[in-house]
Design brief:
The termini are far apart. The protein is α/β, with parallel strands linked by helices and 257 residues long. The chain has one domain: Aminopeptidase (3-Layer(aba) Sandwich). Helices cover 32% and strands 21% of the residues. The strands form two sheets. It has an eight-stranded mixed beta sheet with strand order 1-2-4-3-5-8-6-7, with helices on both faces. Strands 9-10 form a two-stranded antiparallel sheet.
Length: 257
């Protein structure tokens, strides 16, 4: 395993999902923070912004697709990175938010990280195929992720070795959901966190709501949900407005009235 002592959540997730030696380039914090700050209010604007961030990161032409989704006016955004074997790792995050909030935490924090994760991996060859997906309308019933899964053939589903879902990051250290998570991915996450000396805790949030990883778990695809929530931070998700500020080297979220 090739990994620095300190790395971002995105790199940890990719390492845990791949189960192999993985080389990557570290993204500078200002780049990640600028992409986080590019949050928009409307779902359609968020989709276009995410598409543009993928292009900026080097994902374009046939590697970048806007997938039309039945029952939604806004498409999924899909960025693919080909590998050497018939095995796919999907890293996903929903790009929409509830109307009551600005959705910086839930879930532009996850969606805006996808282009940076792609950019960190694009310079080297990988055994697995990586697919980064910004799902539309998760807040309306997992619309984008359910459509994505349903249009896959049985052969495509069998080739998915892992689905890593990023939802509501940045309110604290890394947490993972284990109620429905694949045991192999759970063990891999713990192993990588231990090796890199990064904090990782188990906080199960499945009882308070479903996320896009459920769409894959319902089809028996090995999946895991990565988040940052606790009982203390969960209430800020759907407050009337949420903004963000930088405090030292850490991004913190604050509710505003």
């Amino acid at each position: 395993m090739t990994a620095p002592r300190r790395c971002t959540l995105g790199f940890l997730v990719a390492l845990a999902a791949s189960g192999e030696t993985l080389q990557f380039n570290l993204m500078l914090p200002p780049v990640v923070e600028r992409r986080l700050a590019a949050v928009r209010d409307a779902t359609a604007d968020r989709e276009r912004t995410l598409r543009d961030l993928f292009i900026e990161a080097g994902c374009s032409d046939d590697k970048l697709v806007e997938q039309k989704v039945k029952q939604s006016k806004v498409p999924n955004v899909i960025c693919s990175m080909p590998g050497q074997i018939e095995s796919t790792i999907i890293v996903g995050a929903h790009l929409d938010c509830v109307k009551a909030g600005k959705g910086v935490v839930d879930n532009w924090s996850g969606a805006s990280l996808l282009p940076s994760l792609f950019e960190s991996l694009k310079a080297t060859q990988h055994r697995h195929n990586f697919v980064f997906v910004g799902f539309t309308d998760e807040e309306l019933g997992l619309v984008g992720s359910r459509f994505y899964v349903r249009q896959l053939k049985k052969e495509d589903l069998k080739q998915i070795s892992a689905m890593v879902n990023l939802d509501s990051l940045g309110t604290g250290t890394t947490k993972m959901e284990t109620d429905r998570a694949d045991k192999r991915l759970t063990s891999a996450m713990i192993g990588v966190a231990t090796a890199t000396k990064l904090p990782l805790k188990i906080v199960n949030v499945h009882q308070v709501g479903r996320s896009d990883s459920d769409s894959f778990q319902d089809k028996k695809v090995p999946s895991i949900l990565v988040h940052s929530l606790t009982n203390e931070t969960y209430p800020i998700l759907h407050t009337r407005e949420i903004t963000w500020t930088r405090s030292g080297s850490r991004i913190t979220t604050i509710p505003t009235i």
